[in-house]
């Protein structure tokens, strides 16, 4: 039986090629996602191992929740004291800053998106465990003001060599500066900045730029003497530290930093694995269809094997053996393609700032195991039902000319499908509207159950559509159209199984189209209703910028007022909490509509809160909000509640001085500019203020709305690009089904040609069959996608997305594309059918 199964497999290589390709694509996404994830983890681990000392001494609250330096600092005298600790070989103070952007030779910022633009002081302190940290590769270290060292990757991307003058844009009180490039540095131990940029100055200059000229540091590295462990040294260091200062081992500091960053970018791996799952589900439909057709074509052969003594189990396992071999081949090819895909993902993320080109790909054993487990198990699971049905062929059937493969009843499929749809709807409602753990899993499983339920019941549900298509075809195309329609009705299981693969891809595409359109419509309405002032000034990268920009804009002719807004993150009950801040006298300028309390009492140490947030948290006027901030735990009194406002991005609004005293740096995130009535040319004059600052942009209402829509467009395009994989597999499914169907109907095709059907009519018949499959899948996908999209938007109303927009034109375009897909998918199968020799076809058994 094993030899029979393998010979059967080798005898049908071309028939199984496209099924193998479907599993290849799914496995490639799984393997590529895991390789990329492991590469990302190794890169961060190597980076932070080379970027910490044996012991790191830092002020408690020395960094914000987001990892940026706070205003909490250490006195320089502490460095000398730490160097005298028993077991310490040396101690080195570090100055660290974020928002030090390198401007390249073309006047554009290097990086900016994603990884930070770092600045600080250069020192030659060794990293933990004696590792060599950042070292000078070319040139020398900076020794005086006006000199700088860049990391190798940044210097190369910016186009600078030793001796060139490098311009910078900073978020400090000095928004722009220049320095001569005197050195280029790299990590000797193989670490990579992963797309971040690094500019290092001499210590005095760094303190002047980033710490207000004070002789202080952000943290101190203490290097251990030979034979002294990090834990031992940390214990000795803690004995001499003042209150408010902590010492952690370099290993712990590196793990902490790497874990935080890996958690922040873990959505990339999750995102890719979700689409790998979609590809595998869609590919499963193709495999089920392929094996169903192949088993049906071999039904007489399998019945003969039963007549010759093969048991039901042997026949079933012979088919599963073919699926096992197919899964092995597909997984092997998919694994190789996954490595190429990981390289592609690495190249794409580099364009968004996460540059891993300095880190070789990491290929862990778990990637191999996952690839083969997924590929083989999915293939065998998809082939199980066709294989199981082979065992139900009675040996006596081998004596007949026509052998019918046993099929489950339509009623049973309908009932099973409807039950699955009901279960899916319950899970979907629970995930969206009930307070259940891991709500996202409930939603995902609910959507999957509904899709599979509709796919299971579709042979019955689609009969009216297939009947209408037959009637329409007969009316328009005559006898040829009638034949095409009858072929679709002849085996509704096969037709709908093929259409279901396309249905899944289009369901998700339509859902995403509705979510994207609704989110953009919500943004447009919110901006239109609540936009205040005439212009908004912000960072092109969504970060902070120098307060000097607002100072200069306040002096521009025609400007009536300038309102600063700043953002920060604290922690509340262990969760991140966003905070906004402005001048107390600017509340009215921000267009805040208070529903309770008064903004007049807003003073340092108080806060006004968003209405929806206050309801969710049970907070009212007179209550206090407790937050963990860089300067320690603070309690702010609630003095007002305001309606949601698109300019106030976070639910808590306090004063600028309150943020400064809490340990956050003196930097702006947004500036709202109001022009004097009748003033002209204000926009142009504001643009002149930031003409040499490529980080800061000036936008009117339309520009601000477009900026808010841009991330939504990028996300939707990314999802569509990944869903294209599922659609490609679905198209392959249509091609494969038609090709196998032509093989199955070889004798029938020969008879039709013998009684006068021309080659052109034959091609038209198969094309019409393909169009029916594609349009059926598209109609089901659009209907389900519209349902899911509207339901999801209704569930997100409490999150502020309260406008439901159905892009009718885009959904109609999906239906139009389905027709084109149907025509293109029929090209190869119809060409093969038309080239069949009539006499040989008639003689086919």
From TrEMBL:
Membrane topology field: Multi-pass membrane protein
Primary localization: membrane
Pfam annotation, one family: MacB_PCD
TM annotation in the entry: 271-296, 317-348, 368-387, 414-434, 440-461, 499-519, 715-743, 764-788, 808-828
InterPro entries (alphabetical): ABC3_permease_C, MacB_PCD, Macrolide_Exporter_MacB
Domain ABC3 transporter permease C-terminal residue range list: 274-393, 721-837
Ranges of residues in domain MacB-like periplasmic core: 17-239, 495-680
Keyword tRNA processing annotated: no
Family of this protein: Belongs to the ABC-4 integral membrane protein family.
Protein name: FtsX-like permease family protein
Organism the protein comes from: Nocardioides marmotae
């Amino acid at each position: 039986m094993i030899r029979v199964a393998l010979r059967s497999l080798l005898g049908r290589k071309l028939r199984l090629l496209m099924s193998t390709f479907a599993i290849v694509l799914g496995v490639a996404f799984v393997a590529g996602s895991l390789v990329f994830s492991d590469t990302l983890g190794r890169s961060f681990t190597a980076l932070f191992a080379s970027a910490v000392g044996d012991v790191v001494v830092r002020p408690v609250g020395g960094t914000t929740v987001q990892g940026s330096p706070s205003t909490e600092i250490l006195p320089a005298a502490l460095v000398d004291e730490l160097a005298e600790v028993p077991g310490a070989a040396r101690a080195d103070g570090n100055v660290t800053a974020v928002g030090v952007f390198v401007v390249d030779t073309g006047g554009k910022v290097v990086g900016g998106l994603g990884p930070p633009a770092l600045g600080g002081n250069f020192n030659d302190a060794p990293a933990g465990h004696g590792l060599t940290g950042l070292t000078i590769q070319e040139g020398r270290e900076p020794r005086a003001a006006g000199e700088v060292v860049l990391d190798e990757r940044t210097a190369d991307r910016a186009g600078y060599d030793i001796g060139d003058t490098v311009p910078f844009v900073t978020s400090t009180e000095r928004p722009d500066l220049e320095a001569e490039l005197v050195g280029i540095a790299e990590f000797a131990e193989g670490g990579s900045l992963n797309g971040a940029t690094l500019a290092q100055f001499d210590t005095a200059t760094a303190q002047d730029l980033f710490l207000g000229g004070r002789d202080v540091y952000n943290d101190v590295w203490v290097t251990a003497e030979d034979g002294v462990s990090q834990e031992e040294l940390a214990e000795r260091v803690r004995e001499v530290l003042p209150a408010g200062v902590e010492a952690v081992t370099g290993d712990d500091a590196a793990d902490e930093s790497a874990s935080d960053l890996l958690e922040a970018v873990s959505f990339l791996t999750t995102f890719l694995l979700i689409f790998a799952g979609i590809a595998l589900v869609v590919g499963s439909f193709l495999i089920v269809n392929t094996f169903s057709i192949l088993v049906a074509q071999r039904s007489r052969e399998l019945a003969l094997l039963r007549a010759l003594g093969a048991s039901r189990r042997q026949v079933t396992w012979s088919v599963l053996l073919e699926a096992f071999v197919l899964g092995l081949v597909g997984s092997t090819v998919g694994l190789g393609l996954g490595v190429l895909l990981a390289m592609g993902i690495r190249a794409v993320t580099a364009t968004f700032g996460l540059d891993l080109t300095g880190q070789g790909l990491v290929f862990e054993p778990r990637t191999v195991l996952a690839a083969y487990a997924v590929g083989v198990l999915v293939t065998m699971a998809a082939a199980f039902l066709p294989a199981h049905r082979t065992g139900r062929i009675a040996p006596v059937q081998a004596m007949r000319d026509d052998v019918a493969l046993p099929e489950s009843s339509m009623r049973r499929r309908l009932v099973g499908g409807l039950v699955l749809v009901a279960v899916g709807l319950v899970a979907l409602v629970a995930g969206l509207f009930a307070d259940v753990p891991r709500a996202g899993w409930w939603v995902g499983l609910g959507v999957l159950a509904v899709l599979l339920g509709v796919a299971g019941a579709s042979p019955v549900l689609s009969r009216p559509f297939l009947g209408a298509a037959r009637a329409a075809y007969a009316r328009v195309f005559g006898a040829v159209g009638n034949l095409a329609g009858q072929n679709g009705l002849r085996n509704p299981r096969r037709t709908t199984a093929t259409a279901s693969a396309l249905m899944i891809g289009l369901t998700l595409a339509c859902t995403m189209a509705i979510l994207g359109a609704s989110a953009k419509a919500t943004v447009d309405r919110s901006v239109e209703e609540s936009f205040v002032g005439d212009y908004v000034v912000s960072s092109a990268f969504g970060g902070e910028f120098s307060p000097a920009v607002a100072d200069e804009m306040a002096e521009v002719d025609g400007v009536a007022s300038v309102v600063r807004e700043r953002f920060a993150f604290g922690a509340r009950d262990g969760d991140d909490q966003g905070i906004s801040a402005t001048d107390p006298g600017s509340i009215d300028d921000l267009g805040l509509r208070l529903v309770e309390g008064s903004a007049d009492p807003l003073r340092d140490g108080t806060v006004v809160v968003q209405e929806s947030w206050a309801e969710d948290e049970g907070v009212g006027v007179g209550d206090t909000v407790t937050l963990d901030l860089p300067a320690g735990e603070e309690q702010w009194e609630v003095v007002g509640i305001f309606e949601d406002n698109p300019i106030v991005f976070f639910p808590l609004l306090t004063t600028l001085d309150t943020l400064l005293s809490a340990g956050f740096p003196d930097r702006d995130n947004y500036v709202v500019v109001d022009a004097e009535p009748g003033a002209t040319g204000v926009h142009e004059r504001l643009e002149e203020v930031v003409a040499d600052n490529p980080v800061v942009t000036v936008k009117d209402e339309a520009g601000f709305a477009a900026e808010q829509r841009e991330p939504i467009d990028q996300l939707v395009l990314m999802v569509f690009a990944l869903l294209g994989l599922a659609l490609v597999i679905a198209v392959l499914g249509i091609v494969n089904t038609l090709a196998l169907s032509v093989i199955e109907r070889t004798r029938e095709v020969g008879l039709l040609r013998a009684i006068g059907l021309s080659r052109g009519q034959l091609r038209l018949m198969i094309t019409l069959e393909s169009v029916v499959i594609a349009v059926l899948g598209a109609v089901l996908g659009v209907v389900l996608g519209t349902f899911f999209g509207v339901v999801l938007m209704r569930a997100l109303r409490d999150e502020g997305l309260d406008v439901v927009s159905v892009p009718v034109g885009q959904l109609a375009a999906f239906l139009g594309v389905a027709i084109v897909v149907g025509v293109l998918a029929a090209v190869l199968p119809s060409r093969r059918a038309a080239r069949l020799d009539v006499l040989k076809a008639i003689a086919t058994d």
